[in-house]
Amino acid sequence: MIQKVEGIVIRTTDYGETNKILTIYTREFGKVPVMARGAKRPKSRFAASSQLFIQGVFVYQQSKGIGTLTTADIIDSFRGIRSDLMLTAYSAYIVELLDKLTEDREKSPYLYELLYQVLHHINEGVDAEVLVRLVETKLLSLTGSPPILHECARCQSVEEPFQFSIRYAGALCRRCLHEDSYHLRVSPQTMKLLRLFQQLNPTRIGSITLKEQTKRELKEALTMYYQEYVGVYAKSKRFLDQMEKMNQASVDTE
Length: 254
What we know:
The longest helix has 19 residues, at about 235-254. The chain starts with a strand and ends with a helix. Helices cover about 40% and strands about 20% of the residues. It has about 250 residues and is α+β, with helices and mostly antiparallel strands. It has two domains: about 1-75, CATH 2.40.50.140; about 110-240, Recombination protein O, C-terminal domain (de novo design (two linked rop proteins), Up-down Bundle). The strands form two sheets. A five-stranded mixed β-barrel has the order 1-2-3-5-4. The protein has a two-stranded antiparallel ribbon with strand order 6-7.
């Protein structure tokens, strides 16, 4: 059966001397693996389209097992991302996290739109670190353990300000703070951003400028939450953390 899909390459795996297996997140079918025969050859017709982050229209022959790519037309190569190592690191973490948290052929136009919009905005110069936090927050809905952010996770009070509790999986009001002596002290702005990220329509992503302290609070809260409730290991996150440290060190020495 011939299938034609719009999708974004989120993983590539070498197969043999000349072939690649592409994992494509598609609008029509969710995550789909296909074989790109000869893609590793420099003059292959799939050489350009079988790279990470490529958005395109892919046609493949679907059999009982993995599909075989027949044609691929590039829509967007996200050149700005691919030409910047830091942006590549952020984007690689995003696509790996999506890959880890989704199963093959689970259709979700919403996730496809989220992936496209985030890569597009990173490519256009929007703060990639902030967009990573947005994706991390949204993908928690796939884990079955999203944080409770609109009310106190312990007593259901809606009275702000809230702090962030790993133990209670979300917001904690002032009256309940004593129940978790290890709660994270975060600003009201950080809690509001987490709620915004959880609810924001991907098509309404815009430019967001945050203080460095707010960025640190978001990263700490989400990193600890993933460690406690998700347990997904992304190889690209270690590389991203190293890149961020190097980038921060270079800024501090200027």
